[in-house]
Amino acid sequence: MYWFPFVRHTPDGWIMAPVGETRVFGVLQRIGLCYGIAACMIYFLKPKTSAWLAVAFLFIYWGLLYLAGDPGDPLSLEGNAVLRIDRWLLGDGHLYHGEGVAFDPEGLLSTLPAIANVIGGYLAGNWIRKNGSNWETIGKMLLAGCALAALAWCWNHFLPVNKKLWTSSFVLLTVGLDCILLAGVIYIIDFRHLTGWTRFFTVFGKNTLFIYLLSELLAILLYVFTNKAGEPWFKVIYTRIFDWLPPYFNSLAFALSFMLVCWLAGWWLDKRKIYIRV
Questions:
Q1: Distance (Å, whole) CA 210 – CA 221
Q2: Range of 223's domain?
Q3: Is residue 193 classed exposed, middle or buried when 0-12, 13-18 and 19+ CB atoms within 10 A define those classes?
Q4: Tens digits of residue pLDDT in 222-245
């Protein structure tokens, strides 16, 4: 996907994009690694053992960030342990450069705490499956979510919440918020029976990976191909259609429009009962 469309435009014309400058890790790769490892843990181990291992991963990662990172600033963009390992393993050419320097927010080392997200999701889903949609389920999900969010706030003072490094405190915060949101969704759908709004979101859920891949490929194409002035079509569409709006609102409107284009593709597939799965 990151090699796509396999060509690059230069002042001398189109050339083959070098494989040596192609990103290796990414969101889909992280999903694959985390799901694969977590699935093996859940299959071969007891749920409690998997849960304790997930907790251990968070503390191990915390230690590795400070032990293997730059002693002066172990959480900096260029001194963190995630970058050091990725740079040693792959080299700068195979890393993400969206921050202006070589650094991959889905690096190999930060996969370790991300596994805990999958284990947390499994435990929450398994709890709902076993206990059903009742007040006890909602109450305990809310309590668990609030407790995890509170722990994340406390841990943030020692290991800041950071999505790019996928810090252990970030894991607790995201799992906690998800538990709170799940409890809210169960209440709205199963208790209040307000389901008219869910159709929009189920379209995404039925072809999730395909829609995500489509969004990535569309964005890549809009950046690769340019108009006669050499401007990427991504920039052209933004400036000509959305730039007249106030700051921030223009970016939001562009993002929502792009999302709706991908949603329409998912809606078309769902209407024809086409579901693309791995």
A1: 16
A2: 201-271
A3: exposed
A4: 988 888 888 899 999 999 999 999
Q: Is residue 166 part of a domain?
A: yes
253 and 159 in a single domain? The answer is no
* Whether residues 57 and 178 fall in one domain: yes
* Residue 19 · residue 235 · CB < 8 Å: no
Question: What is residue 278's three-state secondary structure?
Answer: coil
Chain centre distance of CA 22:
20
Report the distance separating Cα 23 and Cα 150, nearest Å.
Answer: 36
For the chain, how many structural domains are there in total? 2
Torsion of CA 14, 16, 18, 22, to 10 degrees: 80
| pLDDT band, very low/low/confident/very high, at 167 (cuts 50, 70, 90) | very high
User: How far, in Å, CA of 247 to CA of 254, rounded?
Assistant: 12
Coil, helix or strand at residue 3: coil
For the entire predicted model, the pTM comes to 0.91
Placement of tokens 């379209």 in the chain = 203
Which of 195, 230, 260 corresponds to the end of one domain? Answer: 195
Answer whether residue 208 is part of any domain.
Answer: yes
